[in-house]
Amino acid sequence: MANTAAAVPPVRLRLAEDGTACRSGDIAAALATLARSAIELVSGVDSALIRECGAEECTRLYVDRSARRSRRWCDMRSCGNRAKAQNFRRRRAAAGAVA
């Protein structure tokens, strides 16, 4: 499926007179651009760094470029924060039950 989508001409990029980038194309062109990027990612040098988010409800993938390659969540501001807050509440509840 990715090969079929990537075969369509991608989004066209041009430089406007004011120096900004202008993109044009239809949905098929946008999908072709995404498919090409996906193919380059999974077949490239970073393919071994692709990870799945550790949050149960999250379906996102990310490229783990952390120093130790030990990243667990797609985004610390969302999934990572929720997981850490949940663990904190769990520890507090357990500490309260012991005391």
From TrEMBL:
Protein name, per record: Zinc finger CGNR domain-containing protein
InterPro entries membership: ABATE (IPR010852), ABATE_dom_sf (IPR023286), Znf_CGNR (IPR021005)
Domain Zinc finger CGNR: 50-92
High-level lineage: Bacteria, Bacillati, Actinomycetota, Actinomycetes, Pseudonocardiales
Superkingdom of origin organism: Bacteria
Organism of derivation: Amycolatopsis bartoniae
